[in-house]
Amino acid sequence: MSEFNSLLTDKNYLNLASKVFHKYRGFRLSRDDKREIFLSALWYSVKTWDESKSKLTTYFYNNLNYKILDWLKPKKGIKFVSLHHPEEVIDHRNDNFNDIIGELSQIQQNFLRKHYVSGMTYKEIGLENGYSEHEVGVVIKKAKDRLKRGV
């Protein structure tokens, strides 16, 4: 606990955090948001750091970036869609979503369901369907690109 308290006022960590937050200045994080993210990233870093793998500053830098990205995700308006029931789109920005899902090949629909609904990895999907892990990734990426263009 004393190590954590000493890091809270350490100029190196404060300057590092300032530089990282500067990268995300366009998102207008409030001072309270930044403080919460900083404390969370620092606490997590101190508790889980393995000195045999990296320096604490490097580990903190990466964790701070990840915490900021996690913090921003819901605020960017990410919407979720049920691939089992595509008609239950949370954000009906475009009424032709069902048509676009229908335009995907069966294999694309199948791989999307297995990955996003069932939580299977690309490797597991590939083994089950006779594809390589890379091929599964390509199929899913093309399907996602098609959905982004059409919605």
List strands and helices in order, with pairings.
Elements: H1 2-8, H2 11-23, H3 31-48, H4 56-72, H5 97-103, H6 106-117, H7 122-129, H8 133-150
Helix pairs in contact: 1-3, 2-4, 3-4, 6-8, 7-8
Helical residue percent?
55-70%
Distance between the termini: 49 Å
Shape: elongated
- Overall structural class, as computed from helix and strand content, comes to mainly alpha
Give the domain tally.
2
* Count of alpha and pi helical runs: 8
Strand content: under 5%
State the major sheet.
none
What's the pLDDT, averaged over the residues? 80
- Structure summary, number of beta strands: 0
Radius of gyration: 21 Å
- Low-confidence segments, ≥5 residues, pLDDT <50? 89-95
H/E element sequence: HHHHHHHH
Please explain how this structure is put together.
The chain is mostly helical. The chain has two domains: 2-76, no CATH class; 97-150, Arc Repressor Mutant, subunit A. It is 66% helix and 0% strand. It contains eight helices and no strands. It has helices spanning 2-8, 11-23, 31-48, 56-72, 97-103, 106-117, 122-129, 133-150. Residues 89-95 have low confidence and may be disordered.
Compose a concise summary of this entry.
This protein has 151 residues and is mainly alpha-helical. The protein has helices spanning 2-8, 11-23, 31-48, 56-72, 97-103, 106-117, 122-129, 133-150. Helix 6 (106-117) crosses helix 8 (133-150).
